[in-house]
């Protein structure tokens, strides 16, 4: 009985991936979902997966022995990048070490657009990771580890999520004086729904793509941040201003208000979002530099469903949209 292990099932991507893997699993395929803390799963989530035939267990990317325990007997392991910026390549190395020690044949990984700048050619693989935009840096290093592991692999490179503007960035607009301070330069980006990324990850886990392939996941259209801003406010009635800023000006504005340069050790208690300065800047830079302009059909090819547009995706976030006092 082939065994498939999905780690990180407690997160936004992992939870959707787990549900979709169960939806498409064939008879005789064994599924095991892991999370670092079972107690943090939503009530009934683990029981629901178990009722559909999956096993659920704890494992931690920082504990190789816990990974070996759940990987034992698995053919495929899927792992998801964490919020631990700078630590993710080390965590990936632990996953790969445990996978090789237990006879795993193939690994799947959620990477990020821009990782190709350090991996998609012999010249790129010689590039110093520090010359690559901040957000893809960890993913460049992780992809290099995967490709050098000797294991078969599948990688998905996600564009920035549509969900970020609706559920994350919009929460800072009132703090900014009813403004979205933005450094994307008016360029278009084909933002992808996090839900679609989760389904694709479940599909990759279950073998819906050829081994040793990389897939770029986008939404169905490239839009500007101003278009997203205008749409959100048209729904909520919020009166606010979209403000174009340079990277330096945006960094200075947030740094003056205490936004830290390091996500791991920073104090976010008085801030509207947990996002360090390099992370914030790079979200706009990835769009401004044209890294998110291309639209692909990878979501539909791998899941049989058309990629969600941002307006459709935002229906579930409408209660979070900011409103004037």
From TrEMBL:
Pfam families: NAD_binding_10 (PF13460)
Coiled coil: none
Protein name (Swiss-Prot/TrEMBL): NAD(P)-binding protein
PANTHER family for the chain: PRESTALK A DIFFERENTIATION PROTEIN A, PTHR43162
Domain NAD(P)-binding: 8-158
SUPFAM superfamilies associated with the record: NAD(P)-binding Rossmann-fold domains
Organism: Chaetomidium leptoderma
Domain of life per record: Eukaryota
